[in-house]
Amino acid sequence: MRLRAALIGLVVAAATGLLGAAPARADTSDTPDPAGMYVVVLRSTPSWASARALAERYGGRLEQAFQTALPGFSARMTAAAAGRLAADPAVESVQPDRQVRSTGTQVDPASWGLDRIDQASLPRNGAYTYPTTAGNVTAYVIDSGIRTTHTDFGGRATSGWDFVDNDADADDCAGHGTHVAGTIGGTSYGVAKGVNLVALRVLGCDGAGSYAGIIAAVDWVTANAHKPAVVNMSFSGTTYAPLNEAVAASIASGVTYVVSAGNDGADACGYSPAGVAAAVTVGATGQTDARAPFSNAGPCVDLFAPGVGITSAGIADDSASRSMNGTSMAAPHVAGAAALILADHPEATPAQVASALGAAARPGVVTDPAGAPGLLAQTAPSSCDVRTDGADVAIKDRGTVVSTIALAGCSGRATWVSVEVHIAHPRRGDLVVELIAPNGVVKRLKSSNRHDRAADVSATYPVTLSVKDRTGTWKLRVRDTTRAATGHIDSWTLTVA
After folding, report:
1. Region (Disordered): which ranges (predicted)?
2. I need a surface site. Which of 69, 221, 326, 403 has the fewest CB within 10 A?
3. Residue 143 designated active-site
4. What's the 3-state SS for 398-423?
5. Beta strands of 163-267 (E only): which ranges?
6. CB burial readout 435-472, b (16+ within 10 A) else e
7. Is the CB of residue 454 less than 8 Å from the CB of residue 434?
């Protein structure tokens, strides 16, 4: 029987290597762990054959090629060979691979996290209300795998790839990944109760794994993600540049990443992937909204979420549960909240999702944030009903016109707006289109462009903003910047969340 350990956070069991400069330099000052394994960053993306040829040229054996999130590969070789490889002009850097390991204890209290993230303040009301189940979103769990047969997943959990055994069965024999997946999308334990869950196994039964395997998983997501998508990474270790680069590149490809801050009570900026600026980094709080003593903090932490005594799915059998502590437990609350946002706004970029999460969070709630913004994660309010104004509004030469939509009965702040615009005009490049919120905030949707001589505007514009009250009159303002052409606003549709 496979070992089933109680896992919470992740720490790196060795110091970080140095990132080489031009010419590249291999860090061979201490023995890599796993022994003889190196991560090689190249100046251009390799094919599998070219990566293997380069590794073998210096006496190495190729293990994995990275082709989407990070150009490079991992290989086994001697320290001397790594030094020679680093001098090759095709190489950016060579670093020893490092081992990642989990640690923690099991606790008994019942879960309370769902009850906390859907309301503004204490005391909790004993219920969790959610606007959608996010059935159109996929959550990728880079962890110890998932027990996909667990009843709380209702058949929505599947294996992506196992980077430990190098096969397609990412079953969980450690328990950490199943717990995380349950908080993201379990029917009973989850924030997004209909999200599709995909397991990417990078940690073995003992909770250990390597940066090379994690980078390979990030590379896999970048190449294969079914969007809209969110990735949860509930582990952290001292800063490792190749991993940070891979995560940043994957985010740039359009995938939102939520990562745990780490459990050392230290500055999260010194950890990977917590220090990746474009990722959403999450610290942990307890039941009184105080920062958990173990939680990393500092300016790289974007949000806090419940992370003490969190009950979720276990692996003892297909209905098992367990309670755990850690920023590993906090991050999936936010990954689930991100899935809810993506469900309503599947076209949202990672930056827009991060902005919406920040706008929905409660400021000044977390006590002792230790240099981090004291924002407590909240699920965003549901969208107001979609409203459309279909009345034609004439656009005269060099004139400015306004069309309005009034919203009533929409409580809560606006964090996300989608504006679908249809304008009939022979020269759309003449037009400037803007949205004006009820509080007077102006967001430009389209600028004029004298080189664009095509006709008509038919587009949907996602807008990120923070307006205290969604209720009021929203305006679409259109300005014609040149003479000799007229047109009209045909219709526009407003969705406010």
Report:
1. 90-110
2. 403
3. yes
4. CCEEEEEEEECCCCCCEEEEEEEEEE
5. 196-201, 208-210, 229-233, 237-238, 256-260
6. bbbbeeeeeebbebeeeeeeeebeeebebbbbbeebbb
7. no
CA 404 – CA 473 distance, rounded (Å): 7
- Across the 497 residues of the chain, what is the mean pLDDT of every consecutive 10-residue run? 31 29 33 71 96 97 96 95 96 89 39 88 86 94 98 98 98 98 95 97 92 98 98 94 98 98 97 97 98 98 97 97 96 97 89 87 93 92 73 94 88 78 96 95 96 94 81 95 93 86
The dihedrals phi and psi of 144, each to the nearest 5 degrees, come to -95, 15
Report which secondary-structure segment, H or E, holds 343.
helix 327-344
Contact 379, 193 (CB under 8 A): no
Whole-angstrom Cα distance, residue 86 to residue 81? 9
Residues 6+ apart with CB under 8 A from 116: 124, 287, 306, 376
> What is the Cα–Cα distance from 232 to 277, expressed in whole angstroms?
15
Q: How far apart are CA 73 and CA 71, in angstroms?
A: 7
Q: In order of start, what are the domains of the chain with their CATH numbers?
A: 17-97 (3.30.70.80), 122-360 (3.40.50.200), 387-496 (2.60.120.260)
Q: What is the C-alpha separation between 426 and 474, in angstroms, rounded?
A: 26
DSSP state of 278: T
Q: pTM higher than 0.70, yes or no?
A: yes
Handedness of CA 13, 67, 178, 2 (dihedral sign): negative
State the DSSP H helix or E strand holding residue 433, giving kind and residue range, or none if neither: strand 431-436
Give the side-chain half-sphere CA count within 13 A for 300. Answer: 23
* Identity of residue 243: L
Are residues 277 and 298 in contact, defined by beta-carbon separation less than 8 angstroms?
A: no
Catalytic residue among 27, 115, 118, 143: 143
Pick the catalytic residue: 93, 210, 236, 328? Answer: 328
Q: According to the 3-state scheme, what is the secondary structure of 63-93?
A: EEEECCCCCEEEEECCHHHHHHHHCCCCEEE
Active site residue 176: yes
Characterize the bridge pairing of strands 157-162 and 196-201.
parallel
Classify each residue of 266-301 as buried b or exposed e, where b means 16 or more C-beta atoms within 10 Å of its C-beta: bbbbbbbbbbbebbbbbbbbbeebbbbebbbbbebb
The amino acid present at 484, given as its one-letter code, is A
| Of 176, 179, 333, 345, catalytic | 176
Torsion angles phi and psi, residue 465, rounded to 5: -160, 170
The rounded distance, in Å, linking the Cα atoms of 185 and 306 is 16
